[in-house]
């Protein structure tokens, strides 16, 4: 479904991605692991059109995404939940969710709003509340819900557990698994490698902008280097 081939991406003179390559097949959760500065967020930002690639290519269902503007990437079926949530703090929960459907012209927005409420009942309870007053967990629910309102085929999730209490992390990951079971393809960036590999089908490990390991989630969980570096074993 998604193919990333030989990506070189720079921040000024800093070479952030060095020939990075990965693929995400339809219906999968693919985890992208690595330490801070490894290039995980850069990869997602490049896929979603927020950063230009100097070399390499990104394709979605054999259509090129390289050089496509971010709103057109969304229109082609890719929704990005950024690190730090980036909700619209001064808008209500309802307004945030409807912003996710901004580009849509179909009649399914109401149905998708109901789907988001079934996944995150708390959002329906907070529908008229200003988003900036929500708890961190509720804001993460809202960020994911807003992305789902775009009716994507591919969901990019960047550090969904960041800053959340363990009980909320479990809830968020259970919901990510449920979204996948409903048919959503997901590329997941996550520092909590144990949680990510528990729900992922496959994964990649990035180090200093290069993919250094790949395999099924089970293979990565058993890999001594992964266990030592990311699973604390």
Question: Which descriptors would you attach to this protein?
Answer:
233 residues, alpha/beta, Rossmann fold, 2 domains, six-stranded mixed sheet, four-stranded antiparallel sheet, 10 helices, 37% helix, 26% strand
Can you walk through the features of this model?
The chain is globular and about 45 Å long. The strands form 2 sheets. Strands 6-7-8-3-9-10 form a 6-stranded mixed beta sheet, with helices on both faces. A 4-stranded antiparallel beta sheet has the order 2-1-4-5, with helices on one face. It has 10 helices and 10 strands. The chain is α/β, with parallel strands linked by helices and 233 residues long.
How big is the Rg?
17 Å
* Widest sheet, order of strands: 6-7-8-3-9-10
Corresponding CATH superfamily of the largest domain: P-loop containing nucleotide triphosphate hydrolases
User: CATH topology of the largest domain, which one?
Assistant: Rossmann fold
Question: Strand portion, in percent?
Answer: 25-35%
């Amino acid at each position: 479904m998604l193919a990333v081939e030989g990506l070189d991406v720079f921040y000024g003179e800093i070479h952030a991605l060095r020939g990075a390559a990965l693929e995400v097949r339809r219906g999968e959760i693919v985890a992208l692991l690595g330490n801070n500065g490894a290039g995980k967020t850069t990869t997602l930002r490049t896929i979603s059109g927020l950063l230009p690639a100097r070399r390499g290519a990104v394709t979605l269902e054999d259509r090129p995404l390289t050089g496509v503007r971010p709103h057109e990437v969304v229109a082609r079926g890719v929704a990005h939940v950024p690190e730090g949530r980036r909700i619209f703090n001064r808008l209500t929960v309802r307004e945030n969710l409807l912003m996710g459907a901004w580009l849509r012209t179909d009649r399914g927005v109401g149905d998708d709003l109901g789907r988001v409420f079934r996944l995150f009942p708390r959002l329906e309870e907070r529908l008229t509340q200003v988003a900036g007053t929500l708890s961190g967990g509720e804001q993460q629910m809202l960020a994911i819900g807003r992305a789902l309102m775009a009716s994507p085929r591919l969901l990019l999730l960047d550090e969904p557990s960041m800053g959340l209490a363990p009980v909320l992390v479990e809830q968020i990951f259970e919901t990510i698994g449920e979204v996948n079971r409903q048919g959503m393809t997901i590329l997941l960036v996550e520092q909590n490698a144990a949680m990510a590999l528990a729900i992922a089908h496959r994964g990649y490990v990035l180090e200093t902008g290069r993919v250094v390991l790949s395999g099924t989630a089970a293979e990565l969980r058993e890999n001594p280097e992964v266990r030592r570096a990311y699973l604390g074993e």
